[in-house]
Amino acid sequence: MYLKKVVLENIRSMAELEWEPSSHPGWHVVIGDNGAGKSAFLRAVSLALMGRDAAMALRQDWSEWLRAGSPSGSIQVSLSGDSRWDQAGASVSSEVSAELRLQRAGNATQLVPGAASLAAAPALWGTGRGWFSAAFGPFRRFTDGDAGQEALFSSQPRLARHLSMFDASVALRASLGWLEQLETGPDAGLLEPLLAFINQPDFLPHQTRLDSISSRGVRFVDGQGNEVSVASLGDSFQSLLSLTLELIRQLASTYGARRLFAPGDALSLQPPGVVLVDEIEAHLHPTWQRRVGFWFRKHFPHLQFLVTTHSPLICQAAAEGSIFWLPRPGMDEPPSMVTGITRERLLYGSGVDAYGTGAFGDMSTRSPEALAQLERLALLNQKELEGGLSAEERQEQERLRMRTPTAASVLPSPAVERLLK
């Protein structure tokens, strides 16, 4: 299953939004300032994918979902299924549309399925095989979760696949319990390929590896040979590892463990589906931020990832995918796909190139102190051209040029003045 199109009307701060990528599997990135609606966009898509019944268990105040002053709103998604993986009823084709509507009635707001969802509901929102989707919030970890919320992982599995997107108290510990039970369960044959998958050299850094999985627990070993408990793993490890293991667990639950890997290939997983991740870069070092999209694309080649970020490094993996920009509150521009030279610079340029496009807002990549020094260097360079520098000024100029080699020859100009504002 893949998302083909998303249309929002009067949802949160967004009057109208239309997202329609040209490709389906891949790395689809949503960018925009704080308050632009990135998280709200993902949560709206998540609601439409899980369906009305599961959404009601979230106990949301639906009046907060409606745009101020609007009597109604809607979330519409168009999807394409894969007959090899997604089970459809007799009256359901592989092309499915689903809609949730928000209707204000007095002091209350109701969430109801739209007319287009009646045919899709048994397949997309029912208990049939396939139609996989999952959503992960920004607080991804194994420990310190709310036990009451985690109980929903067994009682409401469709909701559980999206739960952390809506509740920061949800930990992704279910994947550890699943791993511990594999040894004696019917899917014990999955243990060996899982170990090989997690211990690929391009995943866990600093030679950390998953040493063993058994009923006694999940055991990691660091590059020095020291045993490391799950609880003592750093936030960056937990953020990425909990997402990956929980995603594998959910795919196994949906499609069956035996269908995860192709025969003889423990390096990539085969199932399709839609995966939403809010703030994918959370806790990740910049080197991981640059790699994470490429890694997921390589090892989950048939999944469609839709992620939000504040980091231009995350965008570099979107050559197979899309980059979607949300305007900040108060702007008159509509949400839009990033195209042309701006897209090229986000994909192939440096971080400075990316910030220079304005796609991440109008900002300087230099600190206020650095800007003051840049202004001083520009004045010294100008004075050198006009009449020369004293020995003391020459030393100051050389010192400033060493600090800012990319601006060594800067001169006072309108461009510099704009930078200094």
UniProtKB/TrEMBL annotation:
This is ATPase AAA-type core domain-containing protein. One of its GO terms (biological process) is double-strand break repair. It comes from the Bacteria. Pfam families: AAA_21 (PF13304), AAA_23 (PF13476). Residues 388-421 are annotated as: Disordered. Residues 194-314 form the ATPase AAA-type core domain. Residues 388-401 have a biased composition (Basic and acidic residues). Residues 5-55 form the Rad50/SbcC-type AAA domain. GO terms for molecular function: ATP binding; ATP hydrolysis activity.
